[in-house]
Amino acid sequence: MLTDPKFRVEIELAIPFHDVDSMGVVWHGNYFRYFEIAREALLKQFGYGYREMKASGYVWPVVDTRVKYRGAILFEQRIGVRAQLEEYENRLRIGYEIVDAETKKRLTTGYTIQVAVNEKTQEMCFVSPDILFKRMGVA
Predict the structure, then answer these.
(1) Which residue has the higher pLDDT, 2 or 125?
(2) Quick one: pLDDT at residue 3?
(3) How many C-beta neighbours within 10 Å does residue 86 have?
(4) Which residues contact 64 (CB under 8 A, 6 or more apart)?
(5) How confident is the model over 35-64, as pLDDT tens digits?
(6) Is the distance from CB of 26 to CB of 72 less than 8 angstroms?
(7) What's the per-residue H, E or C state across 78-110?
(8) Could you tell me the sign of the dihedral formed by the alpha carbons of 129, 131, 133, 139, in that order?
(9) Closest Cα partner for 42 from 68, 92, 6, 80?
(10) How far apart are CA 122 and CA 19, in angstroms?
(11) pTM of the entire structure?
């Protein structure tokens, strides 16, 4: 099921000057922005981007994350950011891989975990809401 191409995406980015430190290396906190850009592209592929999430009555905060820095990313470097849905029944776990766009060398890996929270009651859902399954095509 999660092998369907709509559950993975790759975007390409060029590293701007404002993302790097004085040594020309991407500041570590910016990796989460790159994950976020890829995550939104992934969610939009099956019709459940952030606007659709909010309209459905659920917010999906990130409750856990991990990043493993394997190689430096530099100013003006072109990178590919891959995002793939790994779990969805009780939470959204999305795995990431950042590669050099030219050589395809893996530079970074990571994941984020999001859980559904009912916007009105502010209660966390222990099972993902039906709207997610419907948008994914597994309802």
Answers:
(1) 125
(2) 87
(3) 15
(4) 112, 113
(5) 999 999 999 999 999 999 999 999 999 999
(6) yes
(7) EEEEEEEEEECCCCEEEEEEEEECCCCCEEEEE
(8) positive
(9) 6
(10) 34
(11) 0.94
- Structure tokens that stand for 48 in this block: 């459940």
Using the Cα atoms of residue 128, residue 129, residue 132 and residue 133 in order, give the sign of their dihedral: positive
Long-range contacts of 87-93 (CB under 8 A, 24+ apart): 88/2, 88/128, 88/132, 88/133, 88/136, 89/127, 89/128, 90/115, 90/126, 90/127, 90/128, 91/63, 91/115, 91/116, 91/128, 92/60, 92/128, 92/132
